[in-house]
Design goal:
Structural class: mainly alpha
Helix content: 40-55%
Number of helices: 8
Strand content: 5-15%
Radius of gyration: 27 Å
Number of strands: 4
Largest sheet: 2 strands, antiparallel
Bound molecules: flavin-adenine dinucleotide
Shape: elongated
Distance between the termini: 67 Å
Order of helices and strands: HHHHHHEEHEEH
C-alpha cells in the first residue's frame, strides 16, 4: 500500500465517494433496521465496476489490488476523504496520537468516545513481541536517594536489551520490511535516538516498548538468599505473609502473565488453607 496516492487512486476515491454520498449513512441504517439487503447500492457499485475491484481483469474484476479494495471499503464506510488526511494520519504514531489530538481539542465523554472510535477502528497495528532471556542485571533495586513523598523507597529500574533481544529486533524489522514490500506499504516508522528505549544493533537503530507485563521484585525461589517468597508463595521471612501477583515471577519470556499469576494465586490459597488447618 502506498500512502502517497496516485492520480488513479484519487479518481477512484472521488468516484466511490460520490456513490457513497449519494446513498448516505441513513440508507445503511434504514436497511439494517429493516433487515433488508442493500441491493441498490450493490447494483450501483457493480455497474460502476467497483465490486471485485481487486480481482484480476481476466476474471472480470477491476484489476486492482488491496489498495483499491481498501479505498472502496473505506469510502463506503465513511464517505469522501482527502488523500492528504490519509497521508498525515499514516505518518503519525497511532493510536496514541489520536487520543492526544482529541484531548488537545478538549473532547470529553461521548464526543471523545466517538472521535476515538471513528479513527482507531480503522487502523491496523503491526508490532512484534520479542522474547527476552533471564538476565540478572535486569532488576529493581532501591536507593536512599530515591524516595516518595512519605519517605518510602521508590523502585530503581535497571533494564537493558541484551544482544539476544536486539537480534530479534533486527529479525522483526526484516519480517516487517517483507510484509510492507509485499503489500506496497510505505514505511513511515521512525526511531529517534532521543526515544526512551532507543538501542542499536549492527549499525541500525530500534526503539522498544514494554508489553505492560511487569514481573519480579518479590520473586519466588528455592533459596531465601535469592528470593522473597517460596514456591508456595509464602514469604521466607514472615511465615504468616503470602504475597501474590506477578511480582512473584523471577522472569518472563514474552507472553502475557496473568493466567500464570492466577494459577500461582491458587497455589497460595491452597497453602494458606493448609497452613490454617495445621
Ligand atoms: C496495557 C497493559 C496490557 C496488558 N495486557 C495483558 C493481557 O492482555 N494479558 C495478560 O495476561 N496480561 C496483560 N497485562 C499484564 C497484567 O495486567 C498484569 O500482569 C497484572 O495486572 C498484574 O497483576 P498484579 O496483581 O501482579 O499487579 P496489579 O494488577 O498491578 O495490582 C497491584 C495492585 O496493588 C495496588 N497497590 C500498589 N501499591 C500499593 C500500596 N502501597 N498500597 C495498596 N495498594 C497498592 C495497585 O493499585 C494495584 O491495584 C497488561 C498490562 C498492561 C499495563
Amino acid at each position: 500500500m502506498d500512502f502517497l496516492e496516485s492520480d488513479e487512486h484519487r479518481d477512484l476515491r472521488a468516484a466511490v465517494g460520490a456513490i457513497a454520498a449519494r446513498f448516505g449513512g441513513d440508507y445503511y441504517v434504514e436497511h439494517a433496521r429493516a433487515g433488508t439487503p442493500c441491493d441498490e447500492l450493490w447494483s450501483t457499485l457493480g455497474d460502476a465496476g467497483f465490486i471485485g475491484v481487486n480481482v484480476a481483469e481476466e476474471y472480470g474484476g477491476g484489476g486492482g489490488g488491496l489498495v483499491e479494495l481498501a479505498i472502496v471499503c473505506e469510502l463506503l464506510l465513511r464517505g469522501p476523504q482527502t488523500p492528504g488526511e490519509l497521508r498525515s494520519r499514516a505518518s503519525r504514531m497511532a493510536p496514541f496520537t489520536d487520543v492526544s489530538t482529541a484531548m488537545a481539542q478538549g473532547l470529553f465523554g461521548k464526543a471523545l468516545r466517538e472521535y476515538v472510535g471513528s479513527r482507531v477502528t480503522r487502523q491496523a497495528l503491526l508490532h512484534f513481541e520479542c522474547e527476552q532471556l533471564p538476565d540478572p542485571d535486569n532488576r529493581i533495586t532501591i536507593d536512599p536517594k530515591y524516595v516518595d513523598a512519605i519517605g518510602n523507597p521508590r523502585p530503581v529500574i535497571h533494564y537493558d536489551a541484551s544482544p539476544y533481544m536486539r537480534r530479534s529486533f533486527a529479525a522483526a524489522r526484516e519480517a516487517s520490511e517483507q510484509i510492507f514490500a509485499a503489500n506496497g506499504i510505505a514505511d513511515y516508522t521512525e526511531y529517534k535516538t532521543t526515544d526512551a528505549d532507543f538501542v542499536t544493533w549492527q549499525g541500525k537503530g530500534y526503539t522498544f516498548w514494554g508489553a505492560g507485563h511487569i514481573v519480579g521484585t518479590h520473586r519466588m525461589g528455592n533459596d531465601p538468599k535469592t528470593s522473597v517468597v517460596k514456591p508456595t508463595q509464602q514469604c521466607w521471612d514472615h511465615p504468616n505473609l503470602y504475597l501474590v501477583g506477578c511480582g512473584n515471577m523471577p522472569t518472563l519470556g514474552t507472553s502475557n502473565p496473568t493466567l500464570t499469576m492466577v494459577a500461582l494465586t491458587f497455589i497460595a490459597a491452597e497453602n494458606i488453607l493448609k497452613q490454617l488447618g495445621e
